[in-house]
# Entry
Amino acid sequence: MKNMLLFTLVFLSSISGAIAQKAGKEVVLKANEFYACPNHYKITSHEPGKCSICGSELSVTSKEQRAAAMAKSYSCPVHHDVVKHDPGKCPKCGKKLNLSSKEQMKAEVARVYTCPMHPEVALNKDGNCPKCGKQLVEKNE
# Structure
């Protein structure tokens, strides 16, 4: 009885592992495949189009959605629907586009302050130089 139970457990675990491996291999997309069918994950393409099986529109893959979300974006303070990847002016009102709040937070964290007399001193907060006491200035990269 114990042998039968042990055999069943080993058999079930090996099957579930094989299914998980197979599923993991099928979902992996090639580097140039940016679009996939929402119903048939095997149908992928590097350009928009329709699924060859069901005819539905290919959508941007989740990997590409994450990459787009991480890219710098600038938006109009008045027209929130105006979002661009480059700084400039709003085409609707002409106001200067601002960094998104996420990008502003990243820029705040990435600020570096240095001493005009001792450039090797680099701190992540404003203050005075530990060597000479002069006011630190923000380093422009």
Remarks:
- Confidence is low (pLDDT under 50) at residues 16-32.
- The beta strands are 35-36, 44-45, 59-60, 74-75, 83-84, 98-99, 113-114, 122-123, 137-138.
- The longest strand covers residues 35-36.
